[in-house]
Specification:
Oligomer: single chain
Number of helices: 1
Largest sheet: none
Distance between the termini: 125 Å
Helix content: over 70%
Shape: rod-shaped
Order of helices and strands: H
Radius of gyration: 39 Å
Strand content: under 5%
């Protein structure tokens, strides 16, 4: 093998090494991008869990208030019904 052939082989090997290094750098960049994306998604999940807990607490309070209102309305209906019945009987 002569010097020109050896230089061509060395040049080809260097080109292959540069390409491999570029691929590795790109893979590392993608890994960092994926890790960043995962971190953002975990932050979003935590925020959404807090929001959901708050919404569930508000729902429980609203359901309790609705039950109380329902009971009051039923009592009011009972009172109005009793007053109307008494009026019909001439007891008012």
């Amino acid at each position: 093998m002569n010097l020109n052939e050896a230089l061509k082989r060395l040049d080809a090997a260097l080109t292959a090494l540069e390409a491999a290094a570029a691929r590795r750098a790109e893979a590392d960049r993608r890994t960092i991008d994926i890790e960043t994306e995962l971190s953002l998604m975990q932050d979003d999940r935590a925020r959404l869990a807090v929001d959901l807990d708050g919404a569930m607490a508000r729902l429980a309070r609203l359901q309790a208030a609705a039950s109380e209102v329902e009971e009051r309305v039923e009592r009011a209906i009972g009172v109005v019904t009793a007053v109307l019945a008494a009026d019909e009987r001439g007891e008012a």
